[in-house]
Amino acid sequence: MDSHTSTKTADETTSAGFDYVFPAIRGVQAGREFYVSMCPLRLIPRIFLFDDVELPAELRAQRVLNKGRLPALTRYLLDNPDDYVFSALTASVDGEMRFEGITDSGLGMRAGQIRIPMSARFLINDGQHRRAAIEQALRENPDLGHETIAVVFFHDAGLKRCQQMFADLNRHAVRPARSIGVLYDHRDDLANITRLLAMSSPVFRGHIEMESSNLSKRSRKLFTLSALHSGTRCLLQGLKVERDKAAALAQAYWEAVDAQIPDWALVRQRVLSAPDVRRDYIHSHGIALHALGRLGNSLLHESTSPSRWRARLKRLSAVDWSRNNPAWEGRAMSAGRVQKSQQHLALTVNYLRRHIGLELTPEEQELEDAYLRGDV
After folding, report:
1. Among 59, 67, 289, 365, which one is most buried in terms of CB atoms within 10 A?
2. pTM for this structure?
3. pLDDT score of 146
4. Taking the domains of the chain in order of start, what are their residue ranges?
């Protein structure tokens, strides 16, 4: 017997003879009928199950629910009741589905309704995290229950078919590049600040790759939007400033950094090319922006006085950013290649902190000692 089918329970027996009725449009894929419908959110937790039984992976029809994802999804739904978007759920129905067409709909027999016995089981093939988030959100805001979500119904053809559906639905799913996620996110304040920097700051305007999170060797851009976003996030982390002031502070900081790295200005002036600068120097890679953001955060927590943190930053002018500088090996680089790991980032920050006269925290000093001993 398939793991997601079972003998009927007492509740299923008592529901015999009663049907769920959904408005639907009928379609055909791979010779199999399927139906697209709308379902009120309040019904989602009641009728749609996910295969969360403690079974080996080979006996389940989907991955284990990652509960760590639910708080963010739930908050998204609760915080944006007038502006959220959830894509359709896909479900297999372990039971009979009867389609009744509406002959005068103008769509022939494609539009109508489906009847599904209440004793049938609905198994989520795609969207179990959305389903769980909807359930949690309804506890805090029951009014969401009147809204609807699209559902695609397939006949349940057994465990093997359900597993294949899961594999096929996720086979070509590609997470969008972080840069384009920042570019298109108008809800997040930090994303808005980052776009503003990229499009209006004299340091970055015209030299930020807005869509891809990786630069080709021949790209004329200096940084990606995702790298600027990471650096600015680190810069502003924990600072209690309003959004407008945060944007102005970030621009002032990056302009102060720019004044200590002449090569950036030479690229803007077209004296140097961006590919050559990225090839020869560390300061034009994402790890540098990230490290400089952390460095700035320490300076701003130490003192909000622009004159004080600007004075500290002037010491950056003495940093040898060349890849030929052996100090970068094991920090920003490994075997001559720029790295992005948290350990490499932390060691790069250590190097810059010591260069401008900032003390290391105990944790940073412990990592630095391990690096100097050759243990990392």
Report:
1. 289
2. 0.77
3. 94
4. 10-171, 178-373
